[in-house]
Amino acid sequence: MPMPKSIALLLSLLAVLPAYAQPPAWVGVEKPDRVTNGLVALYLLKEGSGAIAKDTAGKVKSLDLNFSDASGVKWLPEGGVQVAGSGSALWTAGPATPLTKALQATSQFTVEAIVVNASLAQTGPARIVSLSKDPSERNFTLGQEHDHYVVRLRTSATDVQGTPETGTGTKTALPVRQHVAVTFGAGALSLYINGQLHVSEARAGDLSNWDPSLRLVVGNEATLDRQWNGKVELVAVYSRALSAAEVKQNVEALGDESLMQVLEE
User: Fold this and answer.
1) Fewer CB under 10 Å: which end of the chain, C or N?
2) pLDDT (tens digit, 9 = 90+) per residue, 17-33?
3) Model pTM greater than 0.85?
């Protein structure tokens, strides 16, 4: 029996659609699970009330994050927190010593965050995730400098400031939902945005000179004077450098079509 004209027309149209008009390859495929091997701290930020963000990894003690300012950090109905104003942060109640020691033991790590920045005017760099003492002394800092992301990493071959810093290119920190990951291991420091590698640089030294007395802080510096404003949906820390495939897996686990279309291009 001949094929109905309507079906034949539809098939012919689909055949000539450009690649960008086709649904991404992941559509209809079950989302993968997040990578858990080496996970030390995980903040899903789904509590919705109260002034504490729970560490759900359950690997080490005393890594819950407290709100520094209930008026500047607010739960969002759809999940995550909004960090606004000045003097606002989520931070551990005291030194994040178990986290520091876990990363020192392997001399490698991954820091992952899902964020929406509130402004491209943020500078300092504005601290997104930081294990630090003040603006001049840190173990690591992931921050935003206007339209790009930067990382400062202290190793046995750097000063306590963790400079020179490593950054993504201009126009990479956009005011939209972005998955940002930093990995360090095997002498390389790498930054990914939405699962794509944006920069990888050689970084000498190990983590043996890290200071175990520093707090883990989200959205600011420990001295509350390097404010970052925006939405945070997730923060994770691993005691190993995730591979490029594993970083991509964590992006795919979100099931966010806008992020996955970037990966398909």
Assistant:
1) N
2) 444 344 444 455 578 99
3) yes
